[in-house]
From TrEMBL:
<feature type="transmembrane region" description="Helical">
    <location>
        <begin position="149"/>
        <end position="170"/>
    </location>
</feature>
<dbReference type="GO" id="GO:0140359">
    <property type="term" value="F:ABC-type transporter activity"/>
</dbReference>
<feature type="transmembrane region" description="Helical">
    <location>
        <begin position="20"/>
        <end position="40"/>
    </location>
</feature>
<protein>
    <submittedName>
        <fullName>ABC transporter permease subunit</fullName>
    </submittedName>
</protein>
<keyword id="KW-1133">Transmembrane helix</keyword>
<feature type="transmembrane region" description="Helical">
    <location>
        <begin position="251"/>
        <end position="269"/>
    </location>
</feature>
<keyword id="KW-0812">Transmembrane</keyword>
<dbReference type="Pfam" id="PF12679">
    <property type="entry name" value="ABC2_membrane_2"/>
</dbReference>
<dbReference type="GO" id="GO:0005886">
    <property type="term" value="C:plasma membrane"/>
</dbReference>
<feature type="transmembrane region" description="Helical">
    <location>
        <begin position="177"/>
        <end position="199"/>
    </location>
</feature>
<feature type="transmembrane region" description="Helical">
    <location>
        <begin position="111"/>
        <end position="137"/>
    </location>
</feature>
<keyword id="KW-0472">Membrane</keyword>
<feature type="transmembrane region" description="Helical">
    <location>
        <begin position="60"/>
        <end position="84"/>
    </location>
</feature>
Length: 274
């Protein structure tokens, strides 16, 4: 595993574009710190600071930071599809196989890189969230601090699942632009499917089925936290209630899709004439 990961990291770090995108994808989450320190001057009457509103309290901070950090995943998605496109355009995939790397090891090297960068990103987000929470949170009890750290697990699984999807489309299209286009097409197809199921049955059934779709299942791992924050400010508003928790079955759905994308990528490479 270490050998395959080192091989992939060398390829990525030797590519200037990949290095820049990887750097950006790791730096962007730090914008959460900037967001926490911004002070808004409201018409010169008073100053509003987000950190003072309690939105960075434990345990909600884990939910807030993982949700917003996951929106930056498209930068590394470009890296994933590019590392496949470069393999084909530079003929390195054929050379690697000639040098003794099996097709299974080739796919595993990509997957190990995905897991590695997803883990690093998760550690960074966890560290940022902990620092902001310790600074702003009104609660410092250990059991409250670690409560809902399951959002970090969901964040990690979400990244691995999405990047595995990018890997599959990269293998399918062989070109970065086409692979990214396929992701957009899949997004549209999921909503068309949702519309057709709603028309045939009803919205509740359609939503339950849609939650099993690849992109939707990944999104559902971490629901938007804004409504939750509003709930804490207006507890009497029952219409704001919703299930924002991380559920094991949702993680399992994404893990199944992840395994499927990796297996399909391997099958594509195995059958393809290089």
């Amino acid at each position: 595993m270490i050998r395959l990961l080192n091989l992939e990291l060398q390829k990525l770090l030797l590519n200037r574009t990949s290095k820049i995108l990887i750097f950006i994808s790791f730096i962007l989450p730090f914008l959460v710190i900037l967001l926490s320190s911004i002070k808004f001057n409201v018409f010169g009457l008073f100053t509003l600071e987000l950190g003072e509103l309690g939105v960075f309290n434990f345990p909600v901070i884990w939910h807030l930071t993982t949700f917003f950090a996951s929106q930056f995943k498209f930068f590394f998605a470009i890296v994933v599809v590019s590392m496949i496109g470069n393999e084909y355009s530079n003929k390195t995939i054929k050379q690697n196989l000639i040098d003794g790397l099996s097709k299974k090891e080739f796919i595993l090297s990509k997957f190990y890189a995905i897991v590695f960068f997803s883990l690093v990103s998760t550690i960074i987000i966890g560290f940022i969230s902990l620092c902001i929470g310790l600074y702003y949170s009104s609660y410092n009890e250990f059991n409250i601090i670690i409560r809902e750290t399951s959002f970090l697990v969901a964040y990690f699984v979400k990244l691995v699942g999405f990047f595995s999807l990018c890997l599959f489309f990269g293998m399918l299209a062989k070109r970065s632009a086409f692979a990214l286009a396929f992701i957009f097409i899949l997004f549209i197809m999921e909503w068309i499917g949702f519309g057709l199921i709603t028309w045939k049955f009803n919205a509740d059934i359609a939503e339950k089925i849609q939650n099993f779709f690849p992109l939707k299942s990944m999104y559902k791992l971490i629901d938007q936290p804004l409504q939750r924050i509003a709930m804490s400010k207006f507890p009497e508003k029952e219409q704001l209630l919703y299930d924002y928790g991380v559920h094991t079955y949702e993680i399992l759905i994404v893990l199944v899709w992840t395994m499927l994308f990796i297996l399909l990528s391997y099958r594509l490479l195995k059958k393809r004439d290089l």
